[in-house]
Design goal:
alpha/beta; Rossmann fold; single chain; five-stranded mixed barrel; globular; Nucleoside_phosphorylase_sf; phosphoprotein
Length: 271
């Protein structure tokens, strides 16, 4: 795997020249609009990049974007990868490892998720303070590659507290409804049953989604600073549960996107 990561990073470097991003961004479902704020220097479709997995979702663009955001050089994944697409955890997290070799120090992650905490509402934002990983595999399973990180990485603070607190301050200063909570990662692709929502809340979850935890585990393995934020696109409250479709989820995410973009831009500007 190390040879593949190094080969892919070298191929990308050959096409972006001396551009060295200091931050990586993973854009979740319905949240690709942040790219409009980037002064783009180079775009690379996933399909053109050697060994790079290709997003199979029609609402994920599948491009690596290189450019400047809030005065900082960034690389953004416009379209992420999911376990339910049939990829291994190593494939899902491959782009994070490549971004690290390209030079990033901080990883910013966004996602669309369902609210579990009854104090939260769809359309709100939630800074991820911690997570519970219920996905059926771990990206670090297998032989450890010492050049990438330690065999047993510490996860006592997977999300950077300083960036999280700054995000909450930015939200408060701009009248943006933003909570802090625990994200539960499940495999998907189905949404949860009433009993599953109830269980996820009992074990400590404030929101549930189908991504993020694998990328965050690998980012911590490689020593990256991590910030993550969710757009709450639906409500998983068992007693009042209503059917929800992907179209509604994407629409809610797009409605909340300007607030998420504002927070991301200010955080990146302060790096």
């Amino acid at each position: 795997m190390l040879n593949s990561i190094q080969r892919t990073a070298a191929w990308i470097k050959n096409r972006i020249g001396d551009f060295e991003p200091e931050a990586g961004i993973i854009l979740g479902t319905g949240l690709g609009g942040l790219v409009r704020e980037i002064e783009i220097e180079k775009q690379l479709p996933y399909s053109n990049i050697p060994d790079f997995p290709i997003s199979t979702l029609e609402f994920h663009s599948g491009r690596l974007i290189f450019g400047t955001l809030a005065g900082k050089k960034v690389v953004a994944m416009q379209g992420r990868l999911h376990y339910y697409e049939g990829y291994s955890m190593q494939q899902i997290t491959f782009p994070v490892r490549v971004m690290k070799l390209l030079g990033i120090k901080t990883l910013f992650v966004s996602n669309a998720s369902g609210a579990l905490n009854p104090a939260f509402k769809k359309g709100d934002l939630m800074v991820i303070d911690d997570h519970i990983n219920l996905q059926p595999a771990n990206p670090l399973v297998g032989s450890n590659i010492d050049e990438l990180g330690p065999r047993f990485p510490d996860m006592s603070e997977p999300y950077d507290r300083t960036l999280s607190e700054k995000a909450l301050q930015i939200a408060a200063a701009n009248n943006i409804t933003c909570h802090k909570g625990v994200y539960v990662a499940v495999s998907g692709p189905n949404l949860e049953t009433r009993a599953e929502y109830r269980y996820l809340r009992i074990i400590g979850g404030d929101a549930v989604g189908m991504s993020t935890a694998p990328e965050v585990i690998v980012a911590n393995h490689m020593g990256l600073t991590v910030f993550a934020i969710s757009v709450l696109t639906d409500e998983g409250f068992p007693d009042t549960l209503k059917p929800v479709g992907i179209e509604e989820i994407i629409e809610i995410a797009r409605t909340a996107e300007p607030d998420l973009t504002h927070i991301m831009k200010e955080l990146i500007a302060g790096l």
